[in-house]
Amino acid sequence: MTEEEREEIRRLKAQGQRGIASVGTRAPGEMAASAGLPRSSRFVSSSQQRSHRCSCESAAGSTRPLLDTHLERGRLSTRSSAVEEGEPPPASQGDDEDDEEGAMPADSRSARERARAALEAMLTLSAEQYVDLAFEVDSGSLMFDEPQVRAASAYDQRHLSLTGAARKNLIALEYDPTCMFNTEAYASHVCRVRRNRYFVPEAALEWKAIKAKVKRRRRPRWRLETSCWAPRKANGNSKDFFETPDAMRQMFNFDWGVAVRAHELGWYIVKCHHDPTTWRDIDRNGTHDEIDEVREALWQHHRIIYGAYDYYSALYSDSENAAGEPDVFNVSFTGYMVFVEHAKMLSKRCPHGEFETIWAIVNAVDKETASEDKHNKGKALNRQEFLQALVRAAITVYVKRGTIGDVSDAVNQLMMSNLTQHMPPGAAQNSNAFRRRFCYIENTSLVLEANLASLTTLYEQYSEVSHQQTDMLKDDDLMSIGEWLTFVRHLGLVDSRQLTIPQAKNIFIWSRVRSVSGSSDGAEKRLRHLFKEDFLEALVRLSMTIALPNDVEIEEAGATDAGEFLLAMQANSPKAYQHFLDTHRPQHKDPDGSDFEEHASQPVWRCIDHLIKLLVRTIEHNTSAMRDASNADGVVQAEEAAKFLRKRISGADLSLQTFTEGALANTDFFATLDSAAVRMLITASAIKIQMMTRLRNARKRVADRKAASAAAKEASAAAEAYTSKLAGADAKPSEGNQDHEAHSGEAAST
């Protein structure tokens, strides 16, 4: 370093020492500007943050010079770095300028090293390096761009504004130290001074979003094979979820095998098929195709046949197989005659007497088939006798009157014209269709599985109710018709006018999976009882038969669930309860439920949930929660079910005491039902408006697409026309050129 350069450095040092007192309250950006130093983003360091705190202290009235702080910290950082690198510590501040001048080496650094030293000086703010940096900046060896200069100026403006405001609040506090406004304002401005930062806005670079791969745990897919219905396939009569054709064929073959031999029905079919003059020539023990044709004609319509048999067996079942066990498995004489009347078989040519004769013939004891038909009950028609009656009725109505000469054709005509067209809906119901629509769906299964513990307890308790069956068909592990009727009676569904006994019988009959392989007691037991899965299906059918509130009505009343709603209404407002029954009974007519959704106010799984809540509350509030409603936990325990069963068998009535004193004791159920109806109407209107809006928008989009398509076609047609026109115009000159060349050739030859 030359002598002139050393002299310049000493001069700058002297100027810096004289300006210490005047820059005590100035920001780092201002000091850099006074020394000719532009600011850069590298000022944002730990030393810069310490300078911010010093600025705040100066704004609060501190007299400590800011540059003294920087100089002291710069010396400490320089000494510490030198000691760490093994170099001797620099001379102290008390040394004279001659020693410092004599110790200063020549500057032989490269431009890159000087730039690095300048950056280190900016970070440490030591006095010597600060002057060197200022000297190099003045000489133009470091250049700063315009955004950095603007950022430094913006920092200075913010700092001056905030410190000035803090000074004003501090001066005001000297006159009135109790002023809360100035205290809070001063604290706010000091905090903002501390948070003030120097930064240079930078343009965002191109970025690519990285989507984290989160492995979501998929919800297991619902499957019928793993649901609460799974045991039906493993243990049911048909070994399937439905009444399969194979299972029904097995039962039909057994019934027809007995029927065709009983009372010589097969020979009667053969005689009616042939002319009486040829009867002597017919081999009675031979094989006759007409019998097989009659069998197949009956099999083609086996569903309507067995459906009618079950319906009329349950419709008029006044007799009992045992105490409390109504006979719903045989058609009584009254049921048979009503069946004939409903099927439109009666006429002047076929009066009642004809069918009474058929009844007498078929119902008579047949010794040949007595061993195979040991469960045949007198004065009633079982399945095989019902098949006999149908064949004889077809012969009476169509063959003997000369309408049809072939017995199998007569049977087919009877099925098509009489049974299929005139049977009531209950006789034509299809259990498989009902199961497919309402039972074997996910939501229904989830509701049943959530309450499976309570339902299993009820099934097991009521399956053990003995009605002293005198026959050999008693089974304590399965639920009989008498036990099912006891169940619905004990829960108050009959006494509360929710359900009738014929409806309960039909539910029992339709919930079975029918199939039988022989005449054994075990096979007949399985056919005449409900398995647990059959019991669950019966509950589904029951929920679609009684009147139940929807979620809106329960919410309007402030009830916890449907059980509390119905029992409180029944106990506190009998008129409102009767009105509720009249207005909320299901309106669908098809037992299969094909028209259920058209009339229902809620889906079937909500009906099932409401029914289960009603059953559980009825049992709990007559046992464990009879005196204290807080004991109800929503689950029927085995002790509660057993206690409830003993209480009801002894003749005790259902208690509704807890609901007369509960939260719904003073509820106006008429107003509640009206309010819920208005709310549902508004909701339905809003949904309808939304759907109409979507429909209008969809139609508009379709019209726009059609218009765009038409415009595109027109543009394409115009383009094609224009192209063809240009092609024609190009063709004409070429033809003229050809003519001209031809004339030229002729002239040349001439």
Order of strands, widest sheet: 1-2
Helix content: 55-70%
Mean pLDDT: 80
How many domains in all?
3
Structural class: mainly alpha
> What is the rounded Rg?
51 Å
Low-pLDDT residue spans: 16-104, 135-142, 740-750
Straight-line distance between termini? 108 Å
Structure description:
- By secondary structure, this protein is mostly helical.
- The protein has 3 domains: 3-195, no CATH class; 242-429, no CATH class; 440-667, no CATH class.
- 62% of the residues lie in helices and 1% in strands.
- The protein has helices spanning 3-18, 28-34, 46-59, 66-84, 97-103, 111-124, 127-139, 146-175, 180-195, 230-235, 245-259, 265-273, 289-300, 302-315, 333-342, 352-363, 383-399, 407-422, 431-439, 442-450, 452-463, 481-490, 501-510, 521-528, 532-543, 551-557, 562-572, 574-584, 596-599, 604-620, 638-649, 657-660, 669-749, and strands spanning 320-322, 325-326.
- It has a two-stranded antiparallel ribbon with strand order 1-2.
- A hairpin with a 2-residue loop joins strand 1 (320-322) and strand 2 (325-326).
- Helix 1 (3-18) crosses helix 7 (127-139) and helix 14 packs across helix 15 (333-342).
- The protein starts with a helix and ends with a helix.
- Mean pLDDT is 80; it is low at 16-104, 135-142 and 740-750.
Summarize the helices and strands and which ones pair or pack.
Blueprint: H1 3-18, H2 28-34, H3 46-59, H4 66-84, H5 97-103, H6 111-124, H7 127-139, H8 146-175, H9 180-195, H10 230-235, H11 245-259, H12 265-273, H13 289-300, H14 302-315, E1 320-322, E2 325-326, H15 333-342, H16 352-363, H17 383-399, H18 407-422, H19 431-439, H20 442-450, H21 452-463, H22 481-490, H23 501-510, H24 521-528, H25 532-543, H26 551-557, H27 562-572, H28 574-584, H29 596-599, H30 604-620, H31 638-649, H32 657-660, H33 669-749
Antiparallel strand pairs: 1-2
Helix pairs in contact: 1-7, 3-4, 3-8, 3-9, 6-7, 8-9, 11-17, 13-18, 14-15, 14-23, 15-16, 16-17, 17-18, 20-30, 21-31, 22-23, 23-25, 25-30, 26-33, 27-28, 27-30
